[in-house]
Amino acid sequence: MGETYVIAGGGTGGHLYPGIAIAEEIRRRKPGARILFAGRGLPLEKSIVERHGYSLLPVRSGGVVGKSIGRRLSGAFLALRGFFEAMRMLQKLKPKAVVGVGGYASFPMVLAAAARRIPTLVQEQNAVPGLTNRLLGRVAGEIALAYDDTRRYFGGRGRLTGNPIRAEFLDVRPTPKGDRWSLLVFGGSQGARALNSAVLDALPHLLEERERLSIVHGTGPADEERVRRAYASSAFPAEVLPYITDIRSAYAGADLVIARAGASTCSELAACGKAAILVPLPTAAHDHQTRNAESVARAGAAVLLKEKDLSGPALAGAIRNLLEDPARIEAMEKASRSLARPDAAARIVDLVERIAP
Asked: What's the structural domain count of the chain?
């Protein structure tokens, strides 16, 4: 068996998918490499990782941002236990390098790797880094950034690489525009109830467009039945899914995407060249989703609709304005594709090879 690499992080698909893109690039360069993921061991993490052919090492971890004092103490205790678990795992695995892809699930493993003098890299996906990566940036050998301005949060350190995208997204082409329009709606791996509700509230205001609209709606597991019933009573044609497993095909068939503004989503939209209405999650740490969405909107690739302004009529108006102006949709698609960094994974693995030759 070849060299071992550990990719640490998780909790959501938004943290895992960039790690999978990095793993794909390592595997392309080193077909015999053994690549393992380390995360909290959640069913979602396990499902995503195993679906792409990798194994997940469960490591205890806990968050401290935005928590009560009791929850913070509990999170810190879990992270400490996870650190010693990771130390024991690394002693056995002896990896060539450890890559942290964000979320507090990455903290114990990357910190343990630094303590064992194993080469480490932290990959920051957002315009504003979370606490975990800010702390790990002090001990990591390299920091890979999606946004140039993010260096200021790391004391001027970091190299601009862009967010890594799985190779499957890179061959998505613009959809030919016709009489029918396809909307793709999703709120991330867990779904977004506020976004789901706004879309449902928008339907009565889009009745004149019903015959020319088809909708693919990823609801999140908790909201599937409510959304499914609402579409059935509205008679709008919709494919309702608790989780969109084949997101690449969903992007490929979409004329317009309505989504949150997580880093992975923004990068996937750019790779696929898709126009979007972005509704940032207002409770995201350090409001990083708003910063992500503002960057995409400034480039002309998306319409930014803040959740405080989100309503059925407002969303319906934004959708109708775009559908009535196909030239604007095409300009947004072109702007979106201009933001793509298809070589981001390669740039990151170049850094890994630099710190772990």
From this structure: 2
* Cα gap 320→93, rounded to integer Å: 55
Query: What tokens does 129 get?
Result: 């880094």
Cα atoms found within 13 Å of the Cα of residue 39, Cβ hemisphere only: 29
- Average pLDDT of the chain is 92
* Single-letter amino acid code for the residue at 64: V
| Residue 235: C-alpha distances to residues 211, 214, 341 (Å) | 10, 11, 40
pLDDT digits (tens, 9 = 90+) for 290-345: 999 999 999 999 999 999 999 999 999 999 999 999 999 999 999 999 999 999 99
Q: What is the DSSP letter of 147?
A: S
pLDDT for 226 equals: 96
| 81 and 204 assigned to the same domain | no
> Residue 97 — φ and ψ, nearest 5°?
-160, 160
pTM: 0.84
Name the residue range of residue 56's domain: 4-165+341-355
Comparing C-alpha atoms, which of 96, 107, 175 is closest to residue 354? 96
Please report, for the domain that includes residue 328, its CATH number.
3.40.50.2000
Concatenated DSSP letters of 249-315: HHHHT-SEEEE---HHHHHHHHHHT--EEE---TTSGGGHHHHHHHHHHHTTSEEE--GGG--HHHH
Adjacent-strand bridge partners of 160: 145
